[in-house]
Specification:
Oligomer: single chain
Strand content: under 5%
Number of helices: 7
Distance between the termini: 15 Å
Order of helices and strands: HHHHHHHEE
Shape: globular
Strand order of the largest sheet: 1-2
Number of strands: 2
Radius of gyration: 22 Å
Length: 199
């Protein structure tokens, strides 16, 4: 059966992360407009990428970062491929840090998210700093405000991601002895959702 070839727990987890990113992207785009006078807007999606990378590992962070970056580039007219290239790298890097250097906790999450926001913001500011006549102080001020404002919103994002990552993955398929089997022949439990059922 097709269900035997698909890890449904990973599929469900990926769908949940996709829904979280879609909801945060909608909030970011529709409700978190640039701050008046000073500019700078909160970016919520990078926090999800870093949380997934840190808690789930580099491959998860890279895959979620690729999807998030693609849709972020579609939503920002001034960007082309910046987020699509940057997010997977940052998500994978968070996974490597979580595996070899950092504890998988809130403090580590805030550290890697802060680093990611600084890198993303600097890449956005690059052309204004070096390729235009815009005031350097104004650019740095806007960038610092964007990083700080985004970091505030990153705090509550960690907890649902941690809750999802803490759930075990894998289809819990087992083999049991059919109570009516004459020879004690082992027969597989037929269940796609981890529930034991005798065929």
């Amino acid at each position: 059966m097709l269900l035997d070839l698909i890890d449904l727990s990973k599929l469900r987890r990926g769908i949940v992360y996709a829904l979280i990113m879609a909801a945060l992207f909608a909030v970011q785009s529709l409700f978190l407009s640039p701050l008046p006078r000073v500019g700078g807007r909160a970016m919520l999606v990078p926090a999800v990428v870093m949380a997934v990378g840190l808690l789930e590992g580099g491959p998860w962070g890279g895959f979620v970062g690729l999807a998030a970056g693609y849709f972020m580039d579609m939503g920002y007219a001034e960007q082309t491929v910046l987020f699509t290239v940057l997010f997977p790298v940052l998500g994978f890097f968070a996974g490597v840090m979580g595996k070899y250097m950092l504890r998988k906790g809130f403090v580590s999450y805030m550290v890697v998210t802060l680093c990611a926001l600084c890198i993303i913001t600097f890449c956005q500011m690059f052309k204004f700093l070096f390729l235009s006549d815009t005031s350097t102080w104004a650019v740095w001020r806007t960038g610092l405000i964007q990083v700080g404002w985004s970091l505030v919103w990153a705090i509550p994002i960690y907890f649902p991601c941690r809750s999802i990552a803490s759930r075990p993955m894998g289809n819990k398929r087992k083999r049991i002895i059919h109570p009516l089997a004459a020879d004690g022949e082992a027969r597989p439990v037929i269940s796609a959702w981890g529930r034991e059922r005798i065929p």
